[in-house]
Amino acid sequence: MTSNKRTFMRAAIGVAVLAAFSINAHAADTLKVGLLATLEGPFAVPGQDGIRGAELALKQKGGMAGGKKIEFIKGSSDGTPDKAVNATRKLVEQDKVQIMIGPLSGDEGVAVKNYAKSKPDITFVNGSSGAQAATLVDPSANFFRFNSEGAQWMVGLGEHALGKGYKKMFLIAEDYGFPYSQVQGFMASYCAKGGKVVDKAWVPLGTKDYSTVIAKIPKDIDALLVVLGGSDAVNFLTQYEQAGGSKPMVGGSITVDQTVLNYKGKRRESLLGTASAGPMADSIDTGEWKKFVADYKAAFKDGFPSPSLFAYLYYINTKAALDGLDAVKGDLGGGQKAYRAALQKTSFAGPAGPVKIDDNRNGVGTTYITEVVKTADGSFTNKVVKQVPNVTQTLGLSKAEFDKMGLGSRDVPDCRK
Q: What Rg do the C-alpha atoms of the chain give, in angstroms?
């Protein structure tokens, strides 16, 4: 081999080594995080805003956490457990993400929690899923939910409804885990203090025709309890308007969320005064909330007038996941045990109040009782009328009292007579 050829070969080998080193260094300095939301189906619009919330949390950290560049690998579901698990499995087993954030919907959360048990070396952080059973029943040591859940979000709303004179109500809700939780949170106190839910209409997720349900609504009720979200809520409101419906409503946390309040239709005006409750509200008057809203508006020109519930929940869960990475300086070794210990201790002043978790890795927080109002610019928003602080998963009851009532379901609680 001539001297020139040897020189050329050495140079080529050197370039290859440098290239390999560069690739390995990039891989070591970039951490892949799975981000799952419902970008299909009836919750597609909420899913898009959930993604915005996660992206805002990362943007506020300059795209870095624990000294590493964070790369979101996104997955899509449609609100069903099977699709959520399949999308999560792809992100974990094929895309090799080291942390998972998501899912959005209630039964999805229960299914992903169960899948998490088969992947003990991966940490799963909730997106906005709010079914009780994701953390209250057979919890997984590697599934964290920094938001409170659907039943917690409705604590105090039953008393508020009674105060408005709604002593007899008829329920319309989607037939899966999250609405079960919401209905329990409402009815636990509503029934105990004399309210009656005379009947319940459970509808499949993605229902388009509500004519049969609307025909069954009794004439002698005081109000409707509506726990529908996304396009389901819009479809019901539109058809109820067309049928001449005029009963006032009490809404679930996702029924008068920004993703629904911005739909166009005459029935939208009748939402004014609608009572609801949740872990945040559009009109929270604190510096932390105002900064969150301003940052959201600046980052997303295609977003809503105010961040939706889903943007808020994905934001706080993503921020917690990133704060935990900062605490361990990006070290996910040892089966991520140090990272999970850091997550358990993670707490911060969130936009809607303190963010912290209990021993089941479930959020404990403030519930906001709200009513829909119109602002000066014509947009609709949820105004805070009362706050209930430090709501736990037993809904203000003792563990014995809660266990006696049982987990929320189609039939629990019941106060028809």
A: 23
- Whether the upstream peptide bond of residue 103 has omega within 30° of 0, thus cis, is yes
**Count, residues in the chain:** 417
Region of poorest pLDDT, from 48-62, 228-242, 338-352: 228-242
Q: Tell me which CATH code domain 26-148+286-365 carries.
A: 3.40.50.2300
Decide if pLDDT at 70 tops 60.
Answer: yes
pLDDT tens sequence across 114-128: 999 999 999 999 999
155 near 396, Cβ under 8 Å?
A: yes
Strand pairing report for 30-38 and 68-77: parallel
Instruction: Supply the DSSP symbol for 348.
Output: E
Write down the pTM of the prediction.
0.90
Domain 26-148+286-365 matches domain 152-284+367-405 at the CATH topology level: yes
Residue 317: predicted pLDDT = 98
Cα(347)–Cα(312) distance, integer angstroms: 16
Q: Which 3 state secondary structure label does DSSP give 368?
A: strand
Spatial distance between the Cα atoms of 300 and 264, rounded to a whole number of angstroms: 21
State how far the Cα of 57 lies from the Cα of 59, in Å rounded to an integer. Answer: 6
